[in-house]
Design brief:
Blueprint lengths: L30 H21 L4 H5 L1 E4 L3 E3 L3 E8 L10 E8 L5 E7 L8 E4 L4 E9 L2 E10 L5 E4 L3 E5 L3 E9 L5 E2 L9 H4 L1 E5 L11 E5 L5 E6 L4 E9 L2 E13 L4 E8 L6 E3 L9 E10 L4 E2 L3 H4 L2 E4 L6 E5 L5 E5 L4 E11 L2 E12 L4 E9 L2 E9 L13 E4 L4 E6 L6 E8 L3 E9 L3 E9 L8 E5 L4 E4 L2 E4 L5 E3 L2 E5 H8 L2 E4 L5 E5 L5 E5 L4 E6 L4 E6 L6 E3 L2 E5 H7 L2 E6 L7 E6 L1
Length: 598
């Protein structure tokens, strides 16, 4: 909501906000009062400033210089500079607002610009992230974005103090890095951030011997932590210590407890080589598609191991879709899955039986043939269309076939704004048009699959959240964007009147005049209906949710006819739509009105 209005005599930008200080001949004597007033105005009007940015011509007259990125804790300078032709008076105030990672903006500094229209603002930020700065000087504004990066590593933290592992298993110990301000440092994104350059690691085995560096490796996991990987060949505790290469006093440690798995508590089948649970139907039936499964046994303290020959005898595989897949058990408790030439979903259940104990785990499996067609599903919103493409086999079943590339043939006024690669036979892409209408696109996957698609983008009028209208002016602001109405809003007999078309464009109201032009029906997006009967002089509001109606008398001035159409009082209609309304100035003649949807 706007909270004030600029005086007509002041210099204002598009937002109507006046940051000019008083034109006193002795500005230094009024500095304290001016700064206080400046801060109050800036804090109160900031939401309006962000919703209604200054016009491009005003923004071009003020430039904000700053580095693109700095390190956490480093002092940096922002320099607002006004162009010589901006006509800013000497000693103009510049207000700087800051927003961190898209959060709420706040006023951080006010500085006086010198005679050349330049100011210097020094800041220091310890928290890493993206900072957006907006500076306002008189009717002008400018903005810039600065990336504050984490500083050098200063803290090492173990992700887990103690881990448990079965004898002969592969151990993975994670360490996280932070700078001195607590900002997390992700390893591996640059050459200097490779794990071996960030951490020095030593591993002591249960016999108190140091493992050679060739017996373990450092990698980076998707979370950006450094992972230490080694094979645990002895029973007992392995001590993994990590420290900063440049500071041996900064350390962290994890203990890996290695035991023989005695009691099995869970069983888990998995595809060898990290492949997905998908079987592609082979066109050569003499060599059908196959997948090999392995089985992992879990014990107490999450200890894992591969089955021994004796334990493998207790493992059984089963499927409820033998017409789709066959199962052949292998040594070591594994299995080979073979497709039977038909598409569809299947499941594999592995069971572990020992001493009357029964442990089970079921995995879903998808079987499909080669992709021969494309299914396209479209969702539109305004000028944007989101399309999901699915590859289908000859039986119309989705296939997980991985196609590395696809091509879109688009008309000139339709552009691709985002896309994903094919994953499990599916991909998504987003298109954006310059104007509403119908568009024909071509989609090609691989070298053989083609499909054409027609996309209809139809303008949908959605209720606005924040609207500002100006008495006597056709231009108004709708959710931060300029718009126009006709005729302009005016005040009659103490009421503010707006045209019917304004209600449609702003609040999504559907208007239906009667054939005899004696009444008009308005229906809001939530289904509430208002009927204005000019001849009967009454207003009827019907709540379609609870099927209740209220009728009240209205005077002849409620609905007025002009050359451009009908106008009606904004206050009553706003209440009918469930929106809030505020007038500015409060105690003088109304200049503009703010509508806010509740």
């Amino acid at each position: 909501m706007e909270t004030g209005a600029a005086k007509k005599s002041g210099k204002t930008g598009k937002t109507g906000v006046n940051f000019n200080r008083s034109k006193s001949k002795k500005p230094k004597q009024n500095k304290t009062a001016a700064v206080i007033l400046y801060i109050a105005c800036a804090c109160i009007l900031l939401p309006t400033l962000l919703i209604f940015p200054a016009p491009a011509t005003a923004a071009a007259l003020l430039h904000l210089e700053a580095p693109e990125q700095v390190m956490a804790g480093e002092t940096f300078t922002l320099t607002p500079k006004a162009r010589e032709d901006s006509l800013l008076p000497a000693n103009e105030y510049a207000a700087l607002f800051e927003s961190h990672n898209g959060g709420e903006p706040r006023l951080v500094e006010i500085s006086i610009m010198d005679g050349r229209g330049t100011a210097r603002m020094q800041l220091r930020r310890k928290k890493a992230g993206t900072y957006r700065y907006n500076v306002f000087a008189g009717p002008f504004q400018s903005e810039i974005t600065i990336a504050v990066l984490p500083g050098p590593p200063a803290v090492v933290k173990e992700v887990k103090e103690r881990l448990y592992l079965g004898l002969g298993g592969r151990a993975t110990v994670e360490f996280a890095l932070e700078d001195e301000y607590g900002n997390r440092i992700c390893a591996g994104d640059k050459a200097e951030k490779q794990p071996e350059n960030l951490l020095a690691v030593a591993i002591t085995d249960p016999a108190q011997n140091l493992l050679p560096e060739t017996d373990f490796e450092l990698t980076t996991n998707p979370a950006g932590n450094i992972a230490v990987n080694f094979t645990a060949e002895k029973k007992g505790d392995y001590l993994v210590e990590a420290r900063l290469p440049h500071d041996s006093s900064v350390t962290a440690r994890s203990l890996v407890n290695v035991q023989e798995l005695i009691t099995v508590t869970a069983i888990e089948p998995a595809v060898l080589d990290g492949r997905e649970l998908f079987l592609c139907i082979s066109e050569d039936r003499a060599q059908p598609g196959r997948l090999e499964l392995e089985t992992i046994l879990h014990g107490e303290n999450n200890i894992t191991k591969t089955p021994s020959p004796a334990e493998a005898q207790n493992i059984v595989f089963h499927t409820e879709q033998p017409n789709l897949i066959s199962i052949e058990k292998t040594a070591g408790g594994g299995a080979i899955l073979t497709e039977m030439g038909r598409s569809g979903p299947a499941s594999i259940t592995v069971t572990y039986l020992e001493g009357g104990k029964k442990l089970q785990k079921t995995l879903p499996l998808w079987i499909a043939g080669k992709a021969v067609q494309i299914e396209l599903e479209t969702k539109t919103s305004g000028l944007t269309a989101q399309v999901e493409a699915t590859l289908l086999d000859g039986e119309g079943q989705p296939t997980w076939e991985k196609i590395k590339n696809y091509r879109l043939d688009l008309p000139a006024d339709l552009k691709l704004v985002a896309q994903t690669p094919f994953t499990r036979g599916k991909t998504k892409f987003i298109l954006e048009a310059e104007r509403y209408g119908s568009y024909n696109i071509g989609f090609t996957a691989g070298d053989e699959l083609h499909r054409h698609l027609r996309i209809d983008l139809i303008e949908e009028i959605r209720p606005a959240r924040h609207v500002v209208i100006f008495i006597g002016q056709e231009s108004y602001i709708r959710d931060g964007q300029p718009a126009k109405m006709s005729p302009a809003p005016e005040i009659y007999h103490g009421r503010v009147f707006v045209p019917l078309d304004f209600l449609t464009a702003t609040f999504g109201v559907e208007i239906s005049p009667s054939p005899d032009d004696k009444s008009i029906a308005l229906q809001s997006p939530d289904g509430t209906e208002m009927i204005i009967d000019r001849e009967a002089g009454q207003l009827t509001i019907t709540n379609t949710k609870n099927d209740t109606a209220v009728t009240t008398p209205i005077d002849t001035l409620f609905l007025q006819e002009t050359i451009d159409g009908y106008i009606l009082p904004a206050g009553i209609i706003t209440s009918f739509l469930g929106a809030g309304m505020d007038y500015f100035p409060k105690y003088n003649q109304i200049e503009h009105i703010t509508f806010i949807q509740k």
